[in-house]
Amino acid sequence: MATRVRPSSKRCAVIGGSGFLGRHLVEKLLDRGYSVSVFDIRQSYELPGVTFHQGDLCDKQALLPALKDVSLVFHCASPAPASDDRGLFERVNIQGTRTVIQACIEAGVQKMVLTSSASVVFEGTDIENGREDLPYAKKPIDFYTETKIQQEKLVLEACDKDKGFLTVAIRPHGIFGPRDPQLVPILVDTARRGKMKFIIGDGTNLVDFTFVENVVHGHILAAERLRPDSPACGKPYHITNDEPIKFWDFMSEVLVGLGYAAPRYHLPYALVYGLALLLWLLALILHPLVSFKPTFTPMRVALAGTHHYYSCDRAKEDLGYKPVVGLKEGIERTVQSYPHLRQGA
Ligand SMILES: NC(=O)C1=CN([C@@H]2O[C@H](COP(=O)(O)OP(=O)(O)OC[C@H]3O[C@@H](n4cnc5c(N)ncnc54)[C@H](OP(=O)(O)O)[C@@H]3O)[C@@H](O)[C@H]2O)C=CC1
Ligand SMILES: CC(C)CCC[C@@H](C)[C@H]1CC[C@H]2C3=C(CC[C@]12C)[C@@]1(C)CCC(=O)C[C@@H]1CC3
Predict the structure, then answer these.
(1) 77 closest CA partner among 114, 106, 127
(2) What ipTM, to 2 d.p.?
(3) Any domain includes 289
(4) Residue 107 is part of which domain span?
């Protein structure tokens, strides 16, 4: 009988490793002596120590070679929230995650770390210092959030000590940093179109923005602490900068850092949310005839006008988590990394 080679604990796979968070995670894993297998629908870079496997995570046969001799898998692939494509989210985040779990079990993977989102508990109303025992959103604010909830449940329920397959979920919030394709580029594009003059609501709402290296740190701690006797088995963990900031102060610091004016004039939250909802409905109805993507979606307005910050006490207690980069330094390094997005560039 052929004996199965136990995968080396320093060999891991990053599904979604070509993306923003995925690539930062791959770089840190290499620094820590891991060899990394990246699985992604696209290849965006090359690095020594990294083997790329290009494919769709919904295809188990494509996934299996990337998981060969791997003991630890990070799953951080998802369609971008801005796509708002229900069919795509269901296919990738729900069915695709089922396929990833099956492939991991079949390949003999021992640990899986999912990148979930703190938004799985967000319904568009205030969350202050939210802990992991908050219930999942009953009325998720968009298809992205709806499928991230299902995805997290699937992964946590798959944790099985008897079978030697351990899982944990990291819930980051508002990730930012160099190479982010979302937050800073959308913000700058909105400013360049003259639409960043207004503050939605009174501007006092507190929010978590998390520097990408802290999110990476949380993932690696969770992976390394995940053992059969660890409290992390089958649990979700909030990972933030642990420095909630006023949403509009954060936006202003990034904008001013890049040479744009900070928003000044206030608009009532209910008015903007109502308009955003109307526009979203119009875009939905007119979709077959004209295609337009409103900047101020109901999701973005809700995020811009409510409190949403989370406690990471559980991660501190169980994982020994502590942010490694403060918010001020994170913002400075982010601003420096976007010379091409500066005013006048
Ligand atoms: N950014 C944020 O603020 C937050 C993100 N998260 C979560 O973090 C994770 C990483 O996000 P982020 O780095 O920002 O996102 P990115 O879009 O930068 O990275 C995701 C990667 O997954 C790839 N991908 C998408 N669909 C598939 C598929 N079917 N098969 C294989 N690969 C696929 C993407 O390719 P392509 O680009 O071609 O689609 C991309 O390379 C996601 O799970 C997201 O839900 C959670 C909280 C906050
Ligand atoms: C147009 C302006 C009102 C807002 C511009 C900035 C926004 C693009 C970002 C502010 C908060 C961000 C955020 C996410 C995406 C980008 C923002 C809306 C997520 C939805 C990304 C995926 C998640 O899991 C949750 C994030 C919450 C914060």
Answers:
(1) 114
(2) 0.97
(3) no
(4) 8-175+209-240+309-325
